[in-house]
Amino acid sequence: MNRFNTPGLLVLRWGFVAMFVLIVIGSLRPGLHVGADQFHVLLIATVLAASAVWIQNPASAQWIRLAFLVFSTGMLRLLFASNAYSVYAVAIWSVAAIAVGMICRFAIAVPGSARQPMSGKAVTHPAHPPGVPPAPEYSFSQNIRRARYSFGDLVGMGDTKKRLFAAGESIISSPGEGRNGILLFGDPGNGKTMFAEALSGELNVPFFPVTYGDVASKWINETPQKLEAVFRQAREAAPCVLFLDEIDSMVKPRENAHAMDRDLSNVMLTNINDLHGARVVLVAATNFIDSLDPAAIREGRFDFRVEIPPPDLEARRAILRRSIGEAVGYGMVDNRLITSLAARWEGFSASRLAGLGGPLADMQRDGVIGPGRVTFDHGMQAMRLLQGRCGRLPEGVKSIDEIIMPPASRNALRDLAFRMKQIHRLEQIGGGLPTGLVFFGPPGTGKTQAAMALAQTSGYAFLKITGANIVSKPESWDKLVREGKDIRPVVILIDEADDILADRRYSPVASLTNRILTTLDGADGRIRDVIYIAATNHYDRLDSAAIRGGRFEEKIRFDVPGFQDLRQYTITSLKKISDQRYTILSGVTERCLSVFTGRSIADVDAVFSRAINLAAVRALQENVAELRPTDISAAAEAVLIE
């Protein structure tokens, strides 16, 4: 309660106002001239009357303006004197006008003041019962501030800004409609807090941000009490934007919840209802809309729901230009490169794009970036450093040249790897990459190894899943695709793809096949730098729609090695074995070739592994480290059982 509004002081204050009116009227009877004594009397009466009006509610813009009107009336009377005192009156009035303007523009309502909502509806607070001590006072005045930016400072995202402004303006300008509550949701890092503050700046009202940490307490019932204080101060500061960040921490589902969480949710719901008509724009943000109590986000509490998506192309260009320019210097920024990277990184969060400058600055410091401009490869390398991972590519991956496969297929794989590495230049002359490929051929011919080699050679990340995994856990496909989009450029391998991409006329998992094909079609927006590879031993079983153009369109065949390839691979493998201190006896090479002809490389590696185990046991028992033709024969009998 305002201590100047007690009955005695109330009569005294308005007595000053009445005395001021009488003095002004009395000064007009002799004429407009004002002497020195009369000037001092008028000035003192004016200040007393204006102060009496202002003290009614020092935090209210309305009462401040009314007090200034009283003050202006007194100064106007002195101005009419048309003498030296008129100059003093103009100077005093000018200083007061500047002070009042700054107060109305920047001042924030004092917590605990008697200010009422601008709608004119009185907010009543129950008196404390006799003998019960009042609840402690909590102040959040340090949270209330002027917004640092408005929508004009945010590039792009026109539709999102339009929806937010329309919602905020309707809450402030039409409180009688009773609509309130703007729920911002979407993936993390896309600027929900920034949009809330920009809305405050656009509406030209104070910004009141509150997080769960601001109200959390280890004491029982103190958290709800603090939350009550937040809403009370928001009503006192109206019109304003009250921003509740991470609201999922404040309105957890009450079913099976802890009693304190239920109490906090109940307090939140009650106070949200009380904001109707108070001209407080309640904005709440969450990354997990499904984890909120349904009653908290229903219509009537949050009448506006606005998704904050990843930045659009215009916004991505602006973010990248600023991030790169501030890190390495704007003189090193090529606008064409910015546009290319912005187009390529659709779907990346604003925070990730804004963080690109850090790795670039490190690269410049380490000499990776020279005195010239930042290149496409620099940008892609910096993004990979920012992502911090390359998927699940194991150690010891063979190179493309080490994989035994038909020459035409190897050339196709080399060509694809080159295109992937030179994608920026390729796109500039009209080229591009396939959405998906099929690696097909007999078992053990290196299809999985080739997919990993392709990722390693091109610098792409690598993710793998099997058709059986997708069938047993359908949600694993969506999870894999989200992960791939997050760490792209990426190669996504679907091993044993015939389990999930079989002809849908006879497949029990046709709906899952449709989901995969829909992903490749780009139903949610085609994402660049994501290449899908389907590996199968049974090409003839694949659905014809899966291998058409635009899906798994390019095919690379794998086969058992020819005699010359097999001979070279055998000689190379035996040399590695001899380097392990084993003596290769005469006849081993010939025995290998006779056993391995018509076999896959996987079979060859399995026989060699078994033969080395036999030789190793003999070396331990007989102290003789040698690989014999009989070891190859015994290993073949154990591994290559028809």
N-end to C-end Cα span:
95 Å
Oligomeric state as shown = single chain
- Global structural class: alpha/beta
Rg (C-alpha, Å): 38 Å
What is the β-strand count? 12
% residues in beta strands? 5-15%
**What's the total helix number?**
24
**Shape, per Cα inertia axes:** elongated
Mean pLDDT reading: 84
What helical percentage do the residues reach? 40-55%
Q: Give a quick account of the main beta sheet: strands, pairing sense, barrel closure.
A: 5 strands, parallel
Largest sheet strand order = 2-3-4-1-5
Task: List unreliable stretches of 5+ residues.
Answer: 107-128
Describe the structure.
With 642 residues, this protein is α/β, with parallel strands linked by helices. It is 50% helix and 9% strand. It has 24 helices and 12 strands. β3 (240-244), α9 (259-274) and β4 form a beta-alpha-beta unit.
Topology overview:
Blueprint: H1 7-27, H2 36-54, H3 61-79, H4 84-106, H5 158-173, E1 182-185, H6 192-203, E2 207-210, H7 212-215, H8 222-236, E3 240-244, H9 259-274, E4 280-286, E5 304-307, H10 313-328, H11 335-344, H12 350-354, H13 357-365, H14 376-387, H15 407-421, H16 423-428, E6 436-440, H17 447-458, E7 461-466, H18 467-472, H19 475-487, E8 490-495, H20 510-521, E9 530-536, E10 552-557, H21 563-579, E11 583-584, H22 588-596, H23 601-622, E12 626-627, H24 629-639
Parallel strand pairs: 1-4, 1-5, 2-3, 3-4, 6-9, 6-10, 7-8, 8-9, 11-12
Helix pairs in contact: 1-2, 2-3, 3-4, 5-6, 8-9, 10-11, 10-13, 13-14, 15-17, 21-22, 21-23, 22-24, 23-24
